[in-house]
Each structure stands twice: as C-alpha cells, then as structure tokens.
Design goal:
By secondary structure, the protein is an all-alpha fold. It has helices at 2-15, 18-52, 54-75, 78-91, 95-131, 138-163, 167-189, 197-221, 234-262, 268-282, 286-305, 308-335, 337-341, 351-369, 373-379, 383-408, 410-436, 444-471. The protein contains 18 helices and no strands. α4 runs parallel beside α6 and α9 (234-262) packs antiparallel against α17 (410-436). The radius of gyration is 24 Å and the shape is globular.
Length: 472
C-alpha cells in the first residue's frame, strides 16, 4: 500500500507539469477513442472471415493495400505538411494563415485525387491479370477506386485537425468512424446477402461518410474565409510536403508490400491469415499513435520557436509514456496469443500462424523502445532524413519479401516485416541521437535505477533527520 501511495503521489506531481499533463491527458483521450476504433476494425475482420470467408478477407486486404498506396500518393505529403503548418500558425494565433494553408492544400490534392480514382478504375484489369495471374481482383479494385477521392481528402482534413490539437475529433475520424460504420453495415448486410463483393462496396460507403465528418469538423473549427492577400506560396507547402510524401509513401509501401507480394505466391486464405496477425499486433500500437498525435504538434511548436530544451523534454515524456502503455499489451500478446486470435477462425490458430504473430510482435517492441522518432523527424524539419531511412527500409523489405516469401510463405512475410520495421525505427533513432544529441530511446532499467537511487537518498535524508532529532 505504501508503494501504491508513493506512486500515486509521484504521478500527481507529474500531472502538475503542464507539458506532461497535456501529453498524458490528450494522449489518453486519443487512446481511449482509438481503443474503440481498433476493436471495431478487428470486429470487421472477424465478420468478414467468419461469414464471408477467409478468402474474401484475403481479396479485400490485397485490394485495400493497393488502395492505401494510391491514397498516400494522392495526398502528396500535403496531409503531413498541413499538420505542421497548422500547428505553427495556431500557436501564433494566425487563423488567417491556417485558412490559407488549407485552401492551397485542397488545390493541390483535389485534382490529383480525382485523376488517381479514374486511373485506378481503368487499370484494374491490368493489375489483376499481369500481377496476380487473373485472380478475381478487377471488380473490387474498381470499387475501391471510387473511395480513393474521399479518403485522400479526408487524410488532409484529419491532419489539419491534429495540427489544431482537436485530438478527439481527429481520433474519431482517423480511428473510429470508417471502422465503426463498415462494421455496422456488414452486420446489416448479413440479413440480405453474403456476397463477398459487398465487403468492398460497404467500405467505400463508410469512407464517404467519414469524409462528410471531416468536412464538418474542419469548417466548425476554421470557418471559411476568402483569401484576399496571398501570404503563403504554394511552393512553400510543396517544399515541406514532397519529402514527407516520399517518407510516408515509402513507409506505407513497406507496410503493405508484404501483402502485395504474398498474394502473388500464396492462396487468399493465407493472405487473410497473415493480415489478421498483423492487425491484431497493430492493436498494441494504440497508445503510441495516441501519444504521437499530441506530441507531434508540440514538436512542431518547439521547432518553430527554436526551443531545444522544450523539445528534449517532450521527447523524454513521450518515450516514457509510449513504453509503459504499449508493453503490457505486447506482453499479453506474447503470453496468450490464442486468447486474441480465436475469434478470427481456425486458420489463425495453427502453429505456423501463431509463430508469424510472435515474429511480428517482436518487431513492434523495437518500435516502442525507440519512441516517437519518425514523428520527431517530420515535425522538426528533418523530413528528408525520414525519407532516406524509409527508402532504405523499403529496399530491405522488398528484398526480404522476394527472398523469404516464395520459400516460407506467411512466415517469410512476418520476418520481412519485423526486420524492416527494426531497420526504420532503429536507424532513425540512432541518426537523431548522433546528430542532435537528443535520445528518443527509452531505457526502463535506467529509469528503475534512478527511482531506486531517489528512494535511497530520501531514506538517507530521513535517517539523518531522525538522528538529528535524537541528538537534540
């Protein structure tokens, strides 16, 4: 009980720190909203695998992978640039500049999103025939092509809301809305049909509804104002967005490349099994994502004001919170994997599937240990460094996928994913440390030693006071 009281006292003292309190409270808000969204995503997968078939989920995941890569390119890095510029101008109280950044960002992404939607629609038969050997992907890819436009615009709106520190609204749109809506629609669909094609159709409908939410929230917080004086050049936005596009696109590519390559060598059921393991593993990153959502704007603020001391403090707080909130979830995954996988059917309860699950989990541990490193790079003007390491990671991922997947199937994909994730996070963290002197690594052993040392000193002071009292 004494230990609990001491920990509570220490935590209450931490909450009095303005920066810790903001990161913790807003991070917690984002986490709990995300905690609703991620299970909904898993429920969506469970519905598809159990009622529409594991092969239907495999087809869905492959088409979704293609969709995700196109959407990232459609955003052109403008979404991440929005988050950075909006955070800086909001801090300065310049909502006129926030409005201008938004309008110029839309002029970049709207035409590009429309073009990509049309292009993917007509290229769908070519992709299905030449890459996937006439697997039934043409129709679902065409369905997803419609959603490209709405998802591209939504991404820019989401990042703008994050820059405004509207974490509840951002987390709702980013993590909950689409997953929740599609889960409900799938359950209703079961009353009428179990045609796998409806999985893709309903997902696109959910994307459209999420886009409506994004538009509503943005104009709620930033009412439209006509730009009378040009204060920001479009090339200034592109100067920031293009390196971020490269980094984000390469990161997304290595995230989905395993699925895209796996589908060319194995049956759709194995693709489904692998992606279920990946999605469940991603559940452990919920606290990381929530903490990054709030710390990213604080990094941008500190960078904009040249406050290195504040930057270091924010990194230290974020790294500690990420570790202690993510690791308990990861330990549960490693200790009782079947408890988290059984709802997705027998395909994910085989020894091979569970081993793949463990391998992917080990890769995530490095992600937690290195802290908010990629967000730090992107929000502090080092997006080109993030771009470089993302390119290296992509090369490693693709090479490992082609080397391991033909021989080991989904286990090869799991090893490639874990290895490439380690390359990205460890490489970026080491670069930050050796170039800036800021460590994003979190060492729980050192923290524990410091805690014990503080206790020893307090005990020593207490003994001295008691001896002084007795001598008196």
């Amino acid at each position: 009980m004494n230990m609990i009281r001491r920990l509570k006292k220490k935590f209450d003292k931490k909450l009095k720190d303005k920066d810790f309190s903001e990161i913790f409270k807003k991070g917690a808000t984002g986490f709990f909203i995300s905690l609703i969204g991620r299970p909904l995503g898993l429920i969506q997968v469970a519905i598809i695998t159990n009622f529409f078939g594991a092969d239907a989920n495999g087809v869905f995941r492959v088409c979704f992978s293609i969709f995700s890569l196109v959407v990232i390119f459609g955003r052109f890095g403008v979404d991440m640039a929005m988050s950075r510029f909006v955070a800086q101008y909001r801090k300065q109280g310049r909502y006129d500049l926030v409005n201008e950044v938004f309008q110029k960002s839309m002029r970049i992404v709207v035409p590009l999103a429309a073009f990509l939607s049309v292009a993917v629609y007509f290229l769908a038969p070519v992709i299905a025939h030449y890459i996937y050997h006439d697997k039934p992907y043409t129709v679902p890819i065409r369905i997803f092509s419609i959603g490209i436009f709405f998802s591209t615009i939504s991404g820019v709106l989401e990042e703008g809301l994050r820059g405004l520190k509207k974490i509840k609204e951002y987390s709702w749109i980013n993590n909950v809305s689409t997953q929740g809506i599609v889960s409900v629609l799938l359950l209703v669909c079961l009353l009428f049909t179990r045609d796998p094609m409806w999985v893709s159709i309903l997902y696109v409908i959910a994307l459209f509804i999420t886009w409506i939410f994004g538009v509503y929230y943005w104009f709620k917080f930033v009412p439209y104002q006509r730009i009378t004086t040009q204060q920001i050049e479009t090339k200034e936005i592109l100067h920031v967005s293009l390196p971020m596009l490269s980094a984000k696109y390469l990161t997304t590519l290595y995230t989905w490349v395993d699925t895209l390559i796996l589908a060319a060598f194995v049956i759709d059921t194995d693709v489904s099994t692998y992606n279920v393991a990946s999605r469940v593993t991603a559940f452990a990153t919920l606290p990381l994502i929530a903490i990054n959502n709030i710390s990213s704007s604080k990094f941008a603020e500190a960078y904009g004001e040249g406050d290195t001391k504040y930057l270091k403090k924010t990194v230290r707080i974020s790294s500690r919170l990420i570790f202690w909130t993510c690791m308990p979830i990861m330990l549960a995954f490693l200790l009782v994997p079947k408890l988290f996988l059984f709802i997705f059917g027998q395909e994910v309860l085989t020894e091979r599937a569970i081993l793949a699950f463990h391998i992917i989990n080990i890769g995530q541990i490095v992600n937690f240990m290195t802290g908010p490193v990629t967000v730090f790079l992107n929000m502090t003007g080092r997006q080109k460094v993030s771009q470089l390491y993302s390119a290296i990671t992509m090369v490693v991922s693709i090479a490992l996928c082609f080397l391991l997947i033909p021989e080991f199937g989904l286990l090869g994909a799991a090893i490639a994913t874990a290895a490439s994730r380690t390359v990205l996070n460890l490489g970026c963290a080491l670069h930050v440390y050796f170039t800036t002197g800021i460590s994003t690594f979190y060492n729980p052993v050192e923290d524990f030693k410091n805690f014990r040392e503080r206790r020893r000193k307090r005990s020593a002071r207490k003994d001295q006071l008691q001896e002084g009292g007795e001598n008196a």
